[in-house]
Amino acid sequence: MDNKTMEQVMEKAEVLVEALPYIQRFNRKIIVVKYGGSAMIDEELKQHVIQDVTLLKLVGFKPIIVHGGGKDISKWVEKSGQTPEFVNGLRKTDANTMEIAEMVLNRVNKSLVSLVQELGVNAIGISGKDGNLLSVEKKFSEGQDIGYVGEITEVNPKILFDLLEKDFLPIVCPIGLDKNYDTYNINADDAACAIAKAVSAEKLAFLTDTAGVCKDPDDESSLISELTISEAQGLIDDGTISGGMIPKMRSCMDAIDKGVQRVHILDGRVAHCLLLEIFTNKGIGTAILNDNANRYYVD
What confidence score (pLDDT) does residue 298 get? Predict the structure, then answer.
C-alpha cells in the first residue's frame, strides 16, 4: 500500500473515531428530521438525505422523518387551473387545494418510503390522520381565514412509539383531522416540532435552504455553531434573525422549552449535512440549546 493510499485509509479511520462518541451518546435516542426545501427537489440531494437517515437508523438512532411538499403542491394546483395563494407565508387552502395537497403529500410520502426500503431499512409512511396522530383546529393568519390549514392541538405519539419499537422508520406527512373529522393541511415545521415534543426527541433537525444562523445574514462564514435560547431571543430582538427565520426560530425555542434536547438548523443543499452535523465535533449548521446545556463547541 503506497503512502497516498495509506493516508486516505487513515483519514477514513479518523472520521469513524470522531463519530464514535456521538454514536454512543445517541444510541437508541429519537431524532426527528424535518425534510423540505431544495433537498426534496434535487434527486441527488434526496438520495443523500435518505442515506443519512438510513445510516442513523442502522447505527442505533431512532429517526422519524416529517416531510413537506409545498413546491409539488403549488405545481399541481397550477396544473388544475388555479393560482397558488399565500397569506403571511401560509398557503390559502380551499377544499380543492386541500384535496390536491393530500394527494401530493401522500405521493411524496410513499416515494420516500420506497427510497428507504431500497437501502434495506423497513419504513412505514403515515399521515397525521392515522391513529389520531395529529389533531388540529382551524388556523387563522392574523385574523384572516385561510381555509383548511390546521393548528395542532394534540399529538398522539402511540403509533410512532409502536413503529419505533417494532424497528420501523416512520415517515409522516403533515395532514391532520379536526374534531369534526375534516382534513387539514399543516405546516411541516409545526408538525415536526409538535411530534418532537410529544416523543421527547433528543434532537430535531430542520433541513433548510440556509446555512444556519449567521451573525451577518449576508456572510455564511459568520455561521453560529451553537446558540442558546437567550442568545437566539437577543438576535431576534436586534434584527439579526428576521423574516421567515423568526417563526422557525420561535418553533425551535419552543421545542427546546418543551424538552427537546437540541434543535439543528442545517443547509439541506449540502450533501450529507445530517451526518456532518451530528457526527463531527463542530458540525456545519446551527444547534439551538437550552441556556444551561453543555456546549459541544464554542465560537
Answer: 44
